[in-house]
Amino acid sequence: MYPSLAITQGLYPEHLGPEWINIYNGEIVSVRVAEKHKPKAERDFVIVEGFKLAANGSYGKTNEERSWLYDPLYAMKTTISGQIFISMWAEYICENIPDCTILQINTDGITFRFPKKYRESLIKLSDEITSECKLTYELNEYKKMVIRDVNNYSAQYLDNKIKHKGDFEINKELHKDPSMRIVSIALEKYFFEGKPVSETIQEHKNIYDFCMRLKTNRDSIAQYITLNENRLHVQDLSKTTRYYISNHGGALQKYFIESEKVTGVNVGFVATLFNKYVEKPMSKYNINYQFYINECNKIINQIEDKQLYLF
User: Fold this and answer.
1) pTM higher than 0.90 for the full model?
2) 232 beta partners
């Protein structure tokens, strides 16, 4: 949305001049839009996803002091324009569609719930306001949504396919933290199939889906602490460590070099390091299943009303 706003509103970093719009649109944004509008089977997803990063990344750099694109006024104009547009759209729909409720709204979209008989009216109104603002939009229809908040939810399309965002994501992009994939798998089974999370977790056969990632930078060191013959042994770890929560093992912590402070990781639980894959039956990994069940329940309890009623 931000790249489109910059083009339709004629916004550009002041030090680069209006020529920026022609290059930004002609070589990045319009190329992606044209590819995305092709039939799904014909799309080049390298262009769709790669140029999306280029378009959004260029906007993001305008708010970074060390970037050659830096222009905070441009960044602010873009975000404010977007907020005004989304607010206008929401207001326009809610004023004209009876019994319409906004389920979630953020910087680039809105999810409405409304009586089916007003579907065509809502589309017409959305066409009107986006056309007036020289923008386009995509329409998605869901049969079920499970929402923790605007950035963390699952939505089931009319064809039963499910998309996930945030903590519900199962197959994450490579730059995202893939920790505890089993939690997202169990949540999908629970909310869309009615399967208890304990069953999904205890039946699962892929050890990697229980693993988590611990990363440090040059300011800190990851450490693994074990007890050997009544003596503590502290092992410094690499910058990236893979591990899972187990019934027996060692404690993890981060040691901050300058301040000499220590921060616990998964405090109250012990872990088994798993940087090197060791193949064996799942029962031999000694996984602490209850930890992963608890992680699922933390999310479930934020969504479902667990209030007990006496009558």
Assistant:
1) no
2) 227
